[in-house]
Amino acid sequence: MKVIVVDDSLVMRKIIVNVVESLGYEGAHATNGQNLLEILEHCGDEVGLVLLDWNMPGINGIEALKTMQKNSRLRAIPVLMVSTESEDVKVEEALASGAKGYLSKPFTPEELATKIKDILG
Amino acid sequence: MSKIILYDCGAEVAHMVNNLFGEKVAIQNSSFDAQRPLQEFSMVIVETGSKKPEQLLQQIKALRYACNFRNIPIIVMKKKSDTYPKHPYIMAGATEILSLQAPPLACRQILQGYLIPNRQPLDQEMEYLTPFINSAKHVLKTMASIDAEYKELYFPNDFRIFGDVSGIIGLSGKAEGTAVITFYWDLARKVISQMMRVTEDQINAEFIHDGVGELINMISGFSKKYFIGKPYHFELSIPTVVMGSGHQIGHPEDVSIALVIFDVGKSSFALQVCLKPKIKKGN
Fold first, then answer.
1. What pLDDT, in 10s, does the model give residues B110-146?
2. CB-nearest partner of B213 from A9, A14, A104
3. Out of A99, B12, B19, B235, which residue is the most buried by the measure of CB atoms under 10 Å away?
């Protein structure tokens, strides 16, 4: 199963992909919302989970999430928001927009792994 | 009692400094030592003339690093016959260039000005600084298993910061300002390597550039939730990164810039925060 990590930070993408791969999933990455939507357009059927940052240049995470929810083919792909935004109002907005879970930065690898397992079972 | 260290200074400078301060300060004259920590000193004095300007410039750079972001003035005493320009010394990290031929009273006033203790932060300043201090410690501990110890805080007059790499984030919304984290190269490499769970030799400049930006992003983001419902609440911009010693950071006008120093082992990093609630129109 492919897990796409969407973050504009190279370091953060590598940290998250390491955790994803340690759980036995195939890690792929995108650098912003636009990049994610392009990837999903071509290989959305192979994607089992999207880990999505919020603040990114271009199409940001919440915009990409809302776009996914409007697309009947992409709506079923679970999204875990992984963001520096940690206020309740932001968490509620993400969950109301269709995210299956929310993890605030900073996080430990164990906390991320637990969130992924909660969604993927 | 304040302590002043004179590095490689001749009898003329030593005599002058002793005459200016007498027994009010402890004066030490030593041979140059780049490795010696300078935290215990209130001032460092070097002189031109006894060595080539290029050598002195290198020594000033090393001394500025040895200050570990502390607000320690580096004073260059210059002989009148020395025609080398002042600007390179300032660029290297010197605070002031004084002529040995200047009137003693003027020298004393200038040097005494640098010995005035840093002002203490006001309670209202600590209200917005404390969340940033706690967040910086929390982010380094959580992401990199690094214990950062908060050491001191002051309000610099000089916008230049003599680190190697700074992550900068603009803050806007109900309050506006900037937050900046500055590292020396070695500590930045160590922090990023521990965040990525790889060895330090696997960390290149691109990782440091990106990682330092992400650190200030996380520190500001984690601080932000403490300001919910308060006039200091802000939104985050996309972080940027500047590299190079002695770079200058722009901050909004009319706001105190606090520089917070953290120690990690023998090294340090600095966090600059300036944040001010926006004044509502009509008030």
1. 999 999 988 899 999 999 999 999 999 999 999 999 9
2. A9
3. A99
Q: What are phi and psi of B125, to 5 degrees?
A: -75, -40
* Beta-strand pair B235-236/B240-243: unpaired
Instruction: Find the CB nearest B210 among A9, A83, A86.
Output: A9
Report the distance separating Cα B273 and Cα B177, nearest Å: 8
Peptide bond between residue A78 and the one before it cis (omega within 30 degrees of 0): no
CA-based nearest distance A73→chain B, Å: 31
**Cα-flanking dihedrals φ and ψ of residue A32, to 5°?**
-165, -175
Separation CA B125–CA B244 (nearest Å): 29
As a whole number of angstroms, the distance between CA A22 and CA A15 comes to 11
Q: What is the largest CA-CA distance in chain A?
A: 34
> Helix, strand, or coil here: B273?
strand
Q: Tell me the angle at which helices B185-196 and B205-224 cross, rounded to the nearest 10 degrees.
A: 80
| Residues forming a β-bridge with A82 | A103
CB spacing of B236 vs A8 below 8 angstroms: no
Task: From B7, B69, B11, B71, select the one nearest B44 (Cα to Cα).
Answer: B7
Q: In angstroms, rounded to a whole number, what is the distance separating the alpha carbons of residues B91 and B29?
A: 24
Q: Which two tokens stand for residue A77?
A: 């792909």
Cα B73 from chain centroid (whole Å): 11
Look at A108 and B221 and tell me if their CB atoms are within 8 Å. no
- Does residue B263 belong to the interface with chain A, where contact is any CB pair within 8 Å? no
The structure tokens listed for B200 are: 């330090």
Judged by phi (left if over 0) then psi (alpha if -120 to 50, else beta), residue B22 lies in left
CA-wise closest residue to A98 among A77, A69, A55: A69
Collapsing DSSP to helix, strand or coil, B208 comes out as helix
- The Cα–Cα gap between B150 and B136 comes to 9
Percent of chain B with pLDDT over 70: 99
Question: What torsion do the CA atoms of B169, B171, B172, B176 make, to the nearest 10 degrees?
Answer: -130
* Cα(B220)–Cα(B218) distance, integer angstroms: 5
Q: Per residue in A65-114, pLDDT tens?
A: 999 999 999 999 999 999 999 899 999 999 999 999 999 999 999 999 99
Three-state DSSP state, B179: strand
